[in-house]
Amino acid sequence: MRATLFVTCLGDQFFADACADSAELLRSLGVDVDVAMGQTCCGQPAYNAGYWREAMRMARHTVEALADAEYVVVPSGSCAAMLRGGYAELFAPEGGTAVAELAGRTFELAEFIVRVLGVEDVGSGLEGHAVAYHHGCHALRELGSREEPLTLLGNAGAELVEWEAAEECCGFGGLFSAKLPEVSAAMADRKLDTLPGPDIVTSADPGCLLHLSGRAAQRGNGPVFRHVASVLWEAANGSP
Amino acid sequence: MEVRSRDYAARARATLRDEPGVREAVIGATVAFDRHREQAYGEVDADAWRAWASDVKGHALTNLADYLEEAERRLTENGVVVHWAETAADVHSVLEGVAAAHGVRRVVKGKSMLSEELGVNAALQGQGIEVVETDLGEYVIQLFGEPPSHILGPAIHRSLHDIQQLFHRVHGTPLDATPEDLAAAARSALREAFLTAEMGITGGNFLVAETGTLALIENEGNIRLATSVPKVHVALVGIEKVVARWSDLAGMVQLTSRAATGQAVGTFVSMIHGPRRDGEPDGPEAVHVILVDNGRTGMLADESTWEALKCVRCGACLNVCPVYRQTGGHAYGWVYSGPIGAVLAPGLLGLDEGGTLPFASSLCGACTEVCPVRIPLHEMLLTWRRRAVEAGMAPTTERVLMSAYAAAAKRPALFRIGAAGLRLLPSAVRRRLPFLGSWLSVHGALPWSRPSFMRRRKDGPT
Amino acid sequence: MRDGILTRIRSALAGRQAVAHPGVFVGSPPSGPAIEAFADRFRAAGGEVERFSNMDEAGDWLDGFEHAFEGVAAGADVPTELATHLPSRPAREAPLGVSMARYAAADTGSLVLDSHGGQLPQLLPPTHLVWVRADAVVATLGEAIEAARGDLPSALALHSGPSKSADIGRVIVTGVHGPGRVVVGIVG
Question: Mind telling me how many Å the CA of B302 is from chain A's nearest CA?
């Protein structure tokens, strides 16, 4: 089985280790991994801001860049949802087979591991660690992937802490966080204020992690924020 | 009411900066509302109920002219006087006419978002008529001189402390009065108003075409009183409130209640069929229903957003909305706030006036998940954003940058050079860039990976 | 005005696929007997429920209950056997209102009251005593509403507990405008 990693623009720039860890984790599970060098941005920032013409340009580019992929694995629920559902909206009503095909073989990382590979156990290196999982909105509501990351983390021995705001939006929202920074920051603050003191906060989304960790840094407190790919890969290797 | 939704960003910022208590009060109230809703949905087959309710409203809306005519016939047979109004001014003139005919000097009102939308209070007061809001929350904000900040809980942005001080000033209650004491003070003032008012004004949750029934849901009993004590009752009803059948009511009132407050049904539901009949000991002498358009026919014609007219005004989308929770409703600058407000604003007010609000969302989709009539709210927000951009409403800087970003994204090498360039800028310069600068204003420094992942790939296998 | 609105609606809907009516609502009927389910719901909403096997038993209980009140406003349709011996007062002054419910619905804990006997005794006194016949307690609100179809008075109302509000400080306060105490007597 071959998977092409779509690392996303934020993953590339801010979560390079997590991108590399995604590749290693998949390889350890017997998947041939490659990286499409032509990839850039899926177009979601433009799409969500109302710039559909621009988004279509980026989408076409991405569809081409990923044309040869057997599976596309994305260490981001949000960008995976864009490739899967957003593109269909963008190119409706005419659609197009390339778009539909891409949607059918695109998965967020944890989703891919559990649903496609059928693997629920990647290692046990999280014994003794209290982990809070932030559900990115698009993984949760667009992809319908709530349990997959929790299954993998739980089976790796993590103590998943109850977090009142676990399923609430962190306030990133792409351009939203730059256009309404105070509201966006207040949303992150609610997430941070309700955190029950875990060792690690993890999530499948670079955008959310960038926002939450950036806000925590600005406030001068907060736990360690890690991408779920890194947490899982390290769990597979013994410890985070 | 006056519309100031274009100032959303400034008002939101000001609320967060100057009134931190609002955020605390609104989060407390909305989290509690949403928890009750979630529990109430969990007790029943909520998905099936929502699908049913969505179709009840969809059926009525896609046959709206016929059902409005049927409703008008039944209402008239029941002895109700039916009026039609295209605009707020039309509503005002009907109300003035009815008030004059009955010598009305004092009006008691049940909570009605439509009356807020239409600016009814100011119009009546302009005629020298005293208007008393009787829902406890509405009464509180009327005394504060504020518009409602939430569809269901108009005063949720106000803390107990705020209301203690207000009532101390107005009613002379002690500064440490309990909610019970405060409610008792309001009850006695409002009881007097009920007994002396000549007219009661309410909205309407549902209008049943088959039977000409006006249905109203509430918890306090003030609507029951406003529709039975004064000699005239006038109901303001948006044309989208029609449902086809008498048998639709049982499900609609239950689902609306569960979505709104988590109750199996609101404490009081009035189902009104006209004025007092022969042999009935009490009740109003005259009942008027004003069927209000005020932009709704325009929305109905919109292929992409007409389903927003299914809204039953339960407030569930506000309660679950993480954006709404930070500021409450006043930041939106219009009577309807939160996700449904942001969808209705451009629909009812036009893109020029209401086109800012669809951007007041992170598009997290939580609203769509809870809506009892399954309005795809976040998809509609996206539709309005696209229309706003296509209409040239976006700021020039944003347009230019977005266009440049999209152009660069088609050229991977250029895209990466752009990112590398950003890294090289001194942080003082980055903080002055559009978008990035405002992002950095509330975040710590950007945690660049050094080198980036694609750079690593290029330099050697990972 | 009217015709303009209707014309705009018809033109807005031209070519729009009509949505079929989804049929009669299927709610969540209680699993147990209706009377017990009604009582549970009504009590959970803050109301009180008394159960009597016949009119005499209800009358005996009423003799004790009415002692706490100095006057009554009773609905015109309350049967003589269930009437108090208290002096009649206008509803706005009476400490107790008494009325007769047409139906009670178990799934929502609702009493179906109507305007035939007068609405003010149901609303103005701080305590409201409502009688309902045991055979008028049905499983669902849908059944109760359907049963009422044949005779729709000027106002039909569901009362599902005492008047309440949480508008001040999110604290639930009862008896805000309507009765703060509601007692249901189920007879038969």
Answer: 17
